[in-house]
Design brief:
Helices cover 62% and strands 0% of the residues. By secondary structure, the protein is mainly alpha-helical.
Length: 102
């Protein structure tokens, strides 16, 4: 379980990330490490990336906005390419480590 101070620190990093402000490599690695272990932090990170992507695309298609609001798909537009969907292991290879435990 994360302490209140740690949660506030993570939310500060996520807020800066979503607003396209400076986030150090050390902070990004720390956030990724925690997101790999905690499903809630992983969801926060996904939401921050979506917000960042929305700000980069000023004229968002209504369908893209709906998909983003429903938190469907990947926030990274380049991560949808799956070379061989028959291999389930490759399909989930980019998933956070907590998915393997589920």
């Amino acid at each position: 379980m994360l302490s209140k101070e740690r949660i506030e620190y993570l939310k500060d990093i996520l807020d800066r990330l979503s607003n396209e402000e400076e986030v150090s490599l050390k902070e990004r690695l720390y956030l990724k490490k925690i997101a790999d272990k905690d499903q809630k932090v992983s969801a926060w990170l996904t939401k921050a990336r979506r917000l960042q992507q929305e700000k980069m695309m000023l004229n968002t298609d209504p369908i893209d906005k709906l998909v983003g609001d429903l938190d469907l798909g990947s926030p990274d537009p380049n991560s949808n390419n799956i070379s061989n969907p028959e291999e389930l292991g490759k399909w989930f290879s980019g998933a956070p480590s907590w998915v393997a435990r589920s």
